[in-house]
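Summary for the lay section of the report: proteins are chains of building blocks that fold into shapes. Here we show the chain for Adenylyl-sulfate kinase and then a coded description of the shape we predicted for it.
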Amino acid sequence: MTPCIWITGLSASGKSTFAQALKEKLDKQSVSSYILDGDELRKGLCSDLSLTPEDRSENIRRMAHVAKIVSNTGTIPICAIISPYINDRENARKLFEESNFIEIYLSTKIEVCAARDPKGLYMKAKQGKIKGMTGIDAPYEAPINPELTFDTAIEELDEMVNQLLEVLLRKKQLSTNTNAGALNHIL
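The coded shape description reads as follows.
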């Protein structure tokens, strides 16, 4: 089983960008990985779910189980999803051996996220056009003890990815099905 990379943070904190940069770096060294993006899951597998707390929890449960399936194939699942509740992230962690779940918290301030706002969600929430926006009128419970924390407004993307890769190497969390030795050359 490969490690599960779980990237959490507010909308527009940089989760998808971080996931893509990580995947590109792994691809260059033939390390198999797959991005599970919360926005994409909402369009398909989770399209029946709303933004109620119960449905958000179900959304996370589904992603975690898909990540487990991906991990069991020898591919590293890179999960980029808001996942606003601590309990849901802990339940996802329980599907993996403790050392095989790497939680990355993008702690980017809401003001920065709202200024980025590529989907216009913060503006719509401010105008009252959408309800249940995480960080606005729905809670986001910051991780208590994530493996890594980054503020994407301050830190360089490449450096953040390299720090994660160093953690993976140090903990020897890449399965024998991946080209783990190649990671030494991309750091």
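Put simply, here is one thing we learned. The first strand starts at residue 4 and ends at 9.
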